[in-house]
Amino acid sequence: MKVTDHIESSKGKTLFSFEIIPPVKGRSIQELYDNIDPLMEFDPPFIDVTTSREEYVYIDREGLLDKKLTRMRPGTVGICASIKHKYDVDTVPHVLCGGFTKEETEYLLVDCHYLGIDNVMALRGDAMREEKYFKPTKGGHPFALDLVAQIQDLNCGKYLHEVIETDDCSNFCIGVAGYPEKHLEAPSLKSDLIRLKEKVDAGADYVVTQMFFDNQKYFEFVEAAKEMGITVPIIPGIKPIAVKRHLQLLPQVFRIDLPQDLIDGVEACKNNKDVRKVGIEWAIQQSKELKAAGVPVLHYYSMGKSDNIKAIAKELF
Description:
Elements: H1 3-9, E1 15-20, H2 30-36, E2 46-49, E3 55-61, E4 64-70, H3 76-87, E5 90-96, H4 102-114, E6 119-123, H5 144-155, E7 173-178, H6 189-202, E8 206-211, H7 215-227, E9 234-238, H8 246-254, H9 260-267, H10 272-292, E10 297-301, H11 307-314
Parallel strand pairs: 1-2, 1-10, 2-5, 5-6, 6-7, 7-8, 8-9, 9-10
Antiparallel strand pairs: 3-4
């Protein structure tokens, strides 16, 4: 079932969803299940599964370092199929431009279609660690807009090298990212919204925002998007702060602002256990305000841990 269908059938009720990351190679999928299990009581209609792009590792070969390209967290589509089978819940695999050719993307989408996966999240992805700026993969897409267009083409039976007349076309519901405080590479919020409008016009069905900690920025973003003609659902993405280091890490990586009240609360904590409590309480209050405003879904970035997400969800669902 499509994410947009879940939203429509909820008839104004705010839904609960969350995002997980695949385990590192060699780790059991049971670790994922152990973190998903406590959250199923809140009836998530869909679960997002991230995709990691390739990265370099260095292997010591008798004193010489051998540079190899690898993926540390493969298995996104397999995990989606496994979760769908185990929990009877829809899954949303993240599909990236970075690290994938157009052909590899087409094969991934065909696999998703065969597995009955109805939703995909189309993202450009980040630059590699060794790169200052994002560089498209040779034979891949430079922008999420191009990726959205490829997925929409496939929905119409248009493959990369041929048009196939078939009654079994894919019908993916396409999600894209939105940035209430603008994408870190965008020159302005308005220019970022123009890019978002282009993705919606190309076929995107809904938007999930990057994390934010000031609800007013989300509300202003949604209003600005509407004024630009963006009418698809805009789902807020919420991440509870868990460790003191997040005060420096999150603004550095995501170029977001943290409210001073939250900063003061975290800095007053004696340890990360106390920080986690502050993060949970802030997310609860943030979520209550968003729910009262009628947001379609509250989407939580779990980063593989579910105890704080469960504590938040218990107060809202």
